[in-house]
Amino acid sequence: MTVPENPGERVNYWLALLEGVKAQLKSGQLLDWGITCDSNEGYCFAESDETSLHATVVTWLPYIQFDIKPVIGVDDVIANVKKAAAAGKK
After folding, report:
1. Beta bridge pairs of residue 32
2. Could you read off the pLDDT of 59-77 as tens digits, one per residue?
3. Which pTM does this prediction carry?
């Protein structure tokens, strides 16, 4: 999928995508969203299980490509480090 060359069509394309983002932010599907100043990359945060995440992702295909990386919070990292240290002492 390519972005339209016609400036009017391009604006409509962008606005439709951005309204979709706003709707997903409002509904809670997305927690945060941003885009780089050159508009080539961006990010979003969501708390979701794999099935719900997939349902969100497919709404954007083929317009957006995703590189999804699960993350954990600092408390989970601390717990994992402590578990690893305890296992190493055995």
Report:
1. 45
2. 888 888 889 998 999 999 9
3. 0.73
Identify whether 7 is preceded by a cis peptide bond (ω within 30 of 0): no
| pLDDT above 90 (res 82) | yes
Numbers of helices and strands, H then E, in the chain: 3, 2
Three-state DSSP at 30 gives: coil
Q: Report how far residue 34's alpha carbon sits from residue 13's, in angstroms, rounded to the nearest whole number.
A: 17
What six digits make up the tokens of 37? 């100043």
pLDDT (tens digit, 9 = 90+) per residue, 29-61? 999 999 999 988 999 999 989 999 899 899 888
Cα–Cα distance measured from residue 13 to residue 5, given in angstroms and rounded to the nearest whole number: 11
